[in-house]
Every structure is written in structure tokens, then in C-alpha cells.
Design brief:
0% strand; 242 residues; elongated; 2 domains; Tetracycline Repressor, domain 2; mainly alpha; single chain; Arc Repressor Mutant, subunit A
Length: 242
């Protein structure tokens, strides 16, 4: 009689792999590490995936964010051919750095409401970072051990995104919409790193009880702080002479 797979085992495998990959990186992780965390035999995992590399690529391709992920119909998951794997990785990582709100803002010569435009972009970036928090953590942890991934993620895509955001900030500075007393590259990096820390990195903080409010409140505070860092101060009312 064929053995049935537990219905939640695939989700457990994904959750555990994301956790172990984020801690050790893909290269340093063994399937036995994942199995040990799950409390199952290493051999049982090969009913679901042929290798840790296949599991890593599947996670990245699907952008496995928080939530329930259904197991594919065809198991075990197999590693695509090298050229296919590289193409899919480039496409998926590229989509993680595409923010439609930023591209729409960049296409405008001047905004009707600079504050509203900036807030829309900041919220869109925050939401994207939140959504891809776990797979992006795995990628950043694994990239130093994988030169091709490092070059794609850090040297190309991430660097291009920072430059694109800085170009938009500079354009708004020239138009008088953003404060112009700071270098646009520093302003952009400050805004983006603030978002990334609170939307993603703080969840891996060595002090998990940092005394912060709930996630929704944190998001609102970060949005307000980033807006305050980029928008010019409102003009002060003139004092009446007595």
C-alpha cells in the first residue's frame, strides 16, 4: 500500500527550510539539518524535493512569503536545468525590486501633491519588503557563499534600485518638492534602509523583545519618519509686529 503524505508536511518543510536557510545559508545547510528541525528522517524529505538546491530555487521562484503554500502536483520538486534556473532566478529577483508606484512617480515631471506621491511610494516599498521578508532574508544570507547570486542580487539589482530611488529623490529636490540640504544618495539610502530594517531585519534582531508597538503601528511611524526626512519644513508663520 502506498504511503500517504501528511497534508501539512510540505508547508512544514517550507517553513523549516526558510528558517534554517536564513540562519546558515544555503551552501552550509544540509538536508539533515532541515529534517532534524522538523523531527523527521532525512530520507522522507526526498519525497518532496530532490535536493536543497531544488528547494531553494523553488522558494525563490515562488516568492514564498508568509502564509500557506500549496504543494505542487508533481513531487518531488526537481532542480531546473542551469540556464533555466538562472533565468527564473533573475526574473523573480527582478520582480522583487520593481515598485510600480516608484516607476509611476519617476515618470511624472512634477507631482500634483509631493507628500501624497512620496507616501504612496514609501508604503509600496514597505509592503513589498514585508511580503518578501523570508525569501529575501534567505537570499541575503546565502549570497556571500554563491558568487553568481551575489553579483545578481547585490551588485546589479539592489544597487540599481538604490540608484533609481536616489535619481527620483534628486529630481524632486531640483523641483523644490523635497528638501535639498542633503545628498540625494544619502537621503535615498536613509529612507530605504529605514524601511528595510523595520519591515524585515528587525524580525531577526538578537533582542526579539525590543519594546516596539505592533506591526501596523510600526509601519505608520516609519512612514511618518521617512516623509519627515525628505519633505521640506513648512514655512513658519510670520510674527505680527506690535
Amino acid at each position: 500500500m502506498a504511503r500517504t503524505r501528511p497534508p501539512d508536511r510540505f508547508q512544514q518543510l517550507l517553513d523549516t527550510a526558510l528558517r534554517v536557510f536564513a540562519h546558515k545559508g544555503v551552501r552550509r545547510t544540509r538536508m539533515s539539518d532541515i529534517a532534524r528541525e522538523m523531527g523527521v528522517s532525512p530520507g522522507s524529505l526526498y519525497n518532496y524535493v530532490e535536493s536543497k538546491e531544488a528547494l531553494f530555487h523553488w522558494i525563490v521562484e515562488r516568492g514564498a512569503a508568509d502564509g500557506v503554500v500549496e504543494a505542487p502536483d508533481a513531487l518531488p520538486i526537481r532542480l531546473p536545468a542551469p540556464a533555466v534556473a538562472r533565468r527564473r532566478l533573475r526574473e523573480e529577483l527582478g520582480s522583487a525590486f520593481r515598485i510600480p508606484a516608484l516607476e509611476a512617480a519617476f515618470a511624472r515631471r512634477a507631482p500634483a501633491d509631493a507628500r501624497a506621491e512620496l507616501e504612496k511610494v514609501v508604503r509600496a516599498v514597505y509592503a513589498q519588503v514585508e511580503r518578501a521578508r523570508r525569501p529575501m532574508t534567505v537570499i541575503e544570507r546565502s549570497a556571500p557563499d554563491l558568487p553568481e547570486l551575489y553579483a545578481l542580487y547585490f551588485v546589479q539589482l539592489r544597487r540599481e534600485f538604490f540608484a533609481r530611488f536616489a535619481d527620483w529623490v534628486a529630481r524632486r529636490q531640483r523641483g523644490g518638492h523635497f528638501r535639498d540640504d542633503v545628498d540625494p544618495r544619502v537621503a535615498a539610502r536613509f529612507a530605504l534602509e529605514s524601511i528595510v530594517y523595520f519591515a524585515r531585519h528587525r524580525f531577526g534582531d538578537l533582542d526579539p523583545d525590543a519594546g516596539l508597538p505592533d506591526d501596523d503601528a510600526v509601519r505608520e511611524h516609519v512612514v511618518r519618519l521617512v516623509l519627515a526626512s525628505l519633505l521640506p519644513d513648512p514655512p513658519r508663520p510670520r510674527r505680527r509686529r506690535t
